[in-house]
Amino acid sequence: MKNMTTQFPGEESNGLAEPSSHSGNDPFDLSRLRLSQDFEATTRTSKLLTTVPVRRPDPQTFFRVHPNDAYQMETAVLEHHEDRETYLVDSSLWPQIRSEIIPKVLYTAITRQDTLFIWPVRLEASDGRLDTWNRSAHLAAREAKKGWVRMTSNRERGAYDVLLPEAHYPDPEWPRMTFEEILRIAFRDHFIRDLDHPVIKRLQGRH
Amino acid sequence: MRLDDFSEVWCVDFEFGVSPGERPRPICLVAYELHSQKRLRLWQDELQRLEGPPYGLDGRCLFVAYYASAELGCHLSLGWPLPAAVLDLYAEFRNLTNGRNLLCGTSLLGALAFYGLPSVEAREKDDMRMLALRGGPWTKSEQAALLEYCETDVQAVVTLLQRMAPTLDLPRALWRGQYMGAAARIEATGIPIDREGLFLLREHWTEIQDDLITTIDADFGVYEAGSFRHHHFERWLCDHKIPWPCLASGKLALDEETFRDMARQYPMLEPLRQLRASLAQLRLSDLSVGKDGRNRCLLSAYRAKTGRNQPSTSQFIFGPAVWLRSLIQPRPGCGLAYVDWSQQEFGIAAYLSGDPAMIEAYESGDPYLAFAVQAGAAPPDATKTSHGTVREHFKACALAVLYGMGAEALAVRIGKPTPYGRELLRLHRRTYPKFWRWSDAAVQFALNTGRIHTVFGWTLHVGPKPNTRSLRNFPMQANGAEMLRVACCLATERGIAVCAPIHDALLIEAPLESLDETVAATQQAMAEASAAVLGGPRLRSEARLVRYPDRYMDERGEAMWNTVMHILHKITEGRSICI
To answer: Which of A83, A111, A135, B297 makes an SS bond possible with B315, Cβ 3.0 to 4.6 Å?
Structure first.
């Protein structure tokens, strides 16, 4: 700050004395006094992702699908209807439980509330057939790679409608994880690696 | 930087008399130099004979006092320059204990008690204060007693300094001390008041109140025999289908904050709110106006937890009902300007958090409309006219976030059900994620470390029951206070007559011929102050000019002022003030 140079209207004297020159450092150089307001630097935390649901997008929630193909995988899953659970099945078992598994693409998706989830969508059968529900779901996934969408059932058409937001929403912040890391969390307790898995035993009437 | 770096360290205390609205009248001075142990005792006649202070003022000499603006005010009264380096142990004690419960308060005696240091009896201190305030002439023994008492205060400052010195953050302490010089100048300048108008209001206030009730209550019918009747008000609310917040007891909440919120939603209530506020709070006799027609009172620097000034709400013209501010009138040949930062808190939040969308919104010139556009609630070509209501809602949300307000309170503010408030807050979180990470981190930092600080070190200590809303609010409010202090220092040191600092504004005065130039210089000082606090970026400011014979007018109080003046005109049959 500078010394006062202008006389104050209506006041006899209110000047500052000459600033010190003894130290060569201006004690009132505010830029030298400034303390950081980066509170994040000392409190920085990262959210530990402990759960990744495996499900269809909620019809009332806008979502995005990871645009990088490295974050999707064609595989086979087992859907246990009684428990409403989806299991990832080790490929070595596929020939032995072919009738129980369904070929699906696992898409990595995220909601506007930053909830990461795995979205399985059925793949074409070996004869190339695919119902209109799943065909429209793949189209929705393709749109969701480009922007936010919402997906609702249209029973009359037998397919999903894809809704786009009127507003421009900013892109999501994807967690800094590999697809493999995400899958490990999503299927931590839902991975079938041998035929002695309780779900297989139950389906085969072995207990 | 240490105390030993100064060639002289002067602990100084004045005894002085002061009447309401007047500048201090020095009675005696005692000063003690720490290194040489030199002691000075000067009575008022000796002080007046001096051309300047009997101690050095340059940056090699440190001036130490407890609540230095009083001592510096005496300097100004004596026509002495101000010291270049000021250490105010009051500001440092406040900073050290801000947020903590103090058994003995923040007076000099309280600070001594805090450290377990000996002090004079409080009763003896009061007796001496009364003797000083009584005014002269004083007998020889009274003079000796006052000088002796003044010396005990200096000794107390010396003892306190020695105790506090090892923990002082001296470079920032000197910055805080420098502001006490600006505060002294501002207190000395004061706010020009229409004395005749104030005299008439004081003289006829009882009659005016009766007439005000009759005039304003004609639209409400809620007063009976001069008293506000709850059941009449309930009926009026039912007739006008206005839902009103209730207390747990089921009775209407009639506190000032509720009335203010409701009047925002239902502007028809504003006259009634102002009437209630005026009748309940207004004590015109408390307004401190000196013989020269200037409103002067202690700014109470560093009194608020955020470090803001906290002048008496009854003595300071900006304290009581807003319509009373129309008593502010420049002197003949002069003008006033109320210069405030545009959306100061939004700007502070944007730049300190570094949120790019928030910065973009601030730099758009209308951050509230920009927020609505960014959140997708308004098209990119929206204007204040085309999307006025949307803008108002997003403005309320943006401000609510900065004040730590929840969804329910925000919904009340915008007159909508709670889900609307919740949705707006959700949109804010989505639109400004970096700001929220920073704000959350600020709260976490405070909880982790037990304190949170501003860019220049003003600190709030976290107590056993932390209020996270206050902690979240602190960076905006307290850095806003720092910004105002820098602006006050820059403006006063450049010779600008600052009449008052008001939250995020400066009221300045200048001769009419140089008013525009002075406003530009003030805005320049405020821009520099914002750059100092924000580390580069500058906040915009706006100025409202008042040229004599016009008077200052706050639009929120204009209708009430006109009503009061109309009544006064009737009472005095034309003798009232020219409006």
So the answer is: B297
